[in-house]
Amino acid sequence: INAEYMGAGIGPFAVPAAKNGIRVIKANDLNEFSYKALVQNVALNQVDSWVQCFNMDGRDFIRHCLATYLDPRSQGCVELHSPTGVPGSHHFVMNLPGLAVTFLDAFSYLDTRPTLPSPLIHVYLFSKDTDYRADAAQSSQCCRARRRG
């Protein structure tokens, strides 16, 4: 399993994932203070062998991760490490409830590679709708369509 965390903060998902056996983890936060705390937290928890920390714009981070996802020389390559196409071997976690959905367009490159197994993209978002699942589905579809068009 490979995991990428956008909006990683100080590592509340990345550090426990590493401690629970995930060995290819990329954690990103644009906020300089969060990034510094993330690096420190990863070192203090002795998971720096498995967690790479980044201080990038979210879209640039996703593009960087997708390049790794598609590069056959990379440990994170989906074609090399998931030859059966089993979904769920690669996770993108977007823990920015107010903004995460607006970054979905960064994954549009995957639409040009329909034979690749799709990564699981975990998007956290806010909803005031009583049918929050329908609201989330509509929000994500609208965002992806708006960015492509």
Strand tally = 5
Number of helices: 5
Main sheet attributes: strand count, strand direction, barrel closure: 5 strands, parallel
Structural class: alpha/beta
Helix content: 25-40%
Describe this structure in words.
The longest helix has 17 residues, at 132-148. Mean pLDDT is 80; it is low at 77-87 and 145-149. It is built from five helices and five strands. Strands 3-2-1-4-5 form a five-stranded parallel beta sheet, with helices on both faces. The protein has 149 residues and is of the alpha/beta class. The protein is globular.
Key phrases:
5 strands; globular; 5-stranded parallel beta sheet; disordered C terminus; 15% strand; 149 residues; alpha/beta
Helix and strand arrangement:
Blueprint: E1 2-6, H1 14-19, E2 24-28, H2 32-44, E3 51-54, H3 58-70, H4 78-81, E4 90-94, E5 120-123, H5 132-148
Parallel strand pairs: 1-2, 1-4, 2-3, 4-5
Short note summarizing the structure:
With 149 residues, the chain is α/β, with parallel strands linked by helices. The chain is built from five helices and five strands.
